[in-house]
Each structure stands twice: as C-alpha cells, then as structure tokens.
C-alpha cells in the first residue's frame, strides 16, 4: 500500500478484533440455556436490550461477576491479531477507533486481559457498568431520547455510520487513509462513508460480505475491499500499511 503520514484504523470488535461474539459466548460459557433462550427471542427484542435482560436473568440465578469475567478472558482472541495491532500502534502513525455493538465492560475486560488497553484512542459502544455482581447494560442511543436517522438498517441502539462521521468531525483532522476491519451486516453503514483511498478489511462469508455483494454497487460503495478469513492474514496486511 502507499505510505501515509496519518491513518485511522476502525475496528469492529466481535468476530473482527476478537475471534468470537462476546454477547453470545459469555452465555455459552456460564448458562447455555440462556444462550438458547436468546436465540429464540432475538427477532422480538432489540439485541442490546436482550443482552441486558439476559445478564439480569443470569444475575438472578447467582451467576457472578467473576464467572462472566472468566468467560471473557477465555474467549478466543488470536495472538496474530494482538501482534498486528500492537506493532502498528507502536509505529506511531496510526490511530485506532473501536466501533462495536458489544459493550464497554466486555471490551475493556478482554483488552485488559490481552494487554491491549493502549490501542484505542476511543471506544464507541453500548455503556455498561458493574453494580455489585450485576452487569448493567444500556443502549448507546437512549430509547427515551432522540433516535438516530440511519436509513441503511442499523439497529436502534447505535448507527455505526453516524458514529464514524461524528468521530471524524470531533477529531477535526484528515486521515490520509481509513482502514475499516469488520465482519457484520451492521458494518455496512459505516463503510459507505469511506472514500476511494480507504480500505475495508472484510471477514469472508459473514454478513458484511453478503451486504457488499448485494448492495455495494447500488449504494455507491467507494472503498477498496480486501477479504480475510483468519487474523494471521490481517497481520500480513497490516505489515503493508
Ligand atoms: Mg462483528
Ligand atoms: Zn447506520
């Protein structure tokens, strides 16, 4: 790739930086019957609300903070991904932004365990906090307040495209290149905001690839797309940025 003075790497978290989905994995470890129940309810209840409700239900049956933290710490996270982001961060010309539909506690617990808390200059996600043994989780966009105006299909809890634009406006500086690492259908909205010199590192065979194939041309997607399957490939690509 062309050398740049300043670049931004935007990371989705679940199945992009991490090699699993934190919202689902935690319950697969601590209470698989609740994981099954979520699968049945996911088309009826907004996802963030469903995770919040399931965390409360887990707490009600005595599942502890330590159990949830343990599940997060053993969740698959590829060492090649840890190496890749650490090396690029230390080279000095890359800012990292996390844009995730998980939550602040899941992400910070995993990053602390992997010694990666220095990577992100900002983590934009759903707010969560420990209240004793109960993890309280809320949507980033408060259901009682003004809602986002996304027309691309983002979930009510957050529009990743609007969040990316707001971050860029807040920073007030131009990045020569933006690289977006994502896998899910909700990563489609933010990549529509990217320019021709930007790059999407799309994980193969998941929701984002399906949306790119189906709607990319019609919605005017401009960025270059590069597909990857394993974190070791992201490490190879990062070495060329
Ligand atoms: Mg994801
Ligand atoms: Zn959106």
From TrEMBL:
Which NCBIfam families has this protein been placed in?
A: DKMTPPase-SF, HAD-SF-IB
- Cofactor(s) essential for the protein: Mg(2+)
PANTHER family with a match to the protein in the record: LP01149P, PHOSPHATASE, ORPHAN 1, 2
Return the InterPro entries for the record: HAD-like_sf (IPR036412), HAD_hydro_PyrdxlP_Pase-like (IPR006384), HAD_sf (IPR023214), Pase_PHOSPHO-typ (IPR016965)
Q: Name one Pfam family in it.
A: Put_Phosphatase
Q: Would you tell me the protein name for this molecule?
A: Pyridoxal phosphate phosphatase phospho2
Spell out the catalytic residues: 12, 14
- Domain of life per record: Eukaryota
Q: Looking at the keywords, is Magnesium present?
A: yes
Question: Which of UniProt's keywords are assigned here?
Answer: Hydrolase, Magnesium, Metal-binding
Locate the residues binding Mg(2+): 12, 14, 183
Q: Name one GO molecular function term.
A: metal ion binding
The keyword Ribonucleoprotein is assigned to this record: no
Show the coiled coil region(s). none
């Amino acid at each position: 790739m062309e050398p740049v003075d300043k670049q931004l790497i935007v990371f989705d978290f679940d199945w992009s930086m991490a090699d699993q989905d934190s919202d689902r994995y935690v319950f697969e470890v601590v209470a698989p019957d609740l994981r099954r129940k979520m699968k049945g309810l996911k088309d009826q209840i907004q996802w963030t609300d469903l995770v919040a409700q399931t965390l409360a239900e887990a707490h009600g049956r005595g599942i502890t903070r330590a159990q949830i933290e343990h599940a997060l710490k053993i969740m698959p996270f590829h060492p090649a991904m840890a190496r890749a982001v650490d090396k690029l961060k230390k080279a000095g010309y890359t800012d990292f932004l996390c844009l995730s539909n998980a939550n602040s506690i899941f992400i910070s617990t995993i990053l602390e365990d992997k010694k990666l808390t220095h990577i992100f200059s900002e983590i934009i996600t759903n707010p969560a906090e420990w209240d004793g043994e109960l993890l309280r989780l809320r949507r980033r966009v408060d259901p009682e307040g003004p809602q986002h105006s996304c027309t691309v299909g983002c979930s009510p809890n957050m529009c990743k495209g609007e969040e990316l634009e707001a971050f860029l406006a807040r920073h007030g500086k131009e990045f020569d290149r933006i690289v977006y690492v994502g896998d899910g259908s909700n990563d489609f909205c933010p990549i529509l905001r990217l320019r021709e010199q930007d790059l999407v590192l799309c994980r193969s065979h998941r929701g984002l690839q399906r949306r790119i194939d189906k709607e990319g041309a019609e919605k005017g997607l401009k960025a270059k797309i590069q597909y990857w399957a394993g974190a070791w490939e992201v490490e190879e690509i990062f070495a060329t940025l």
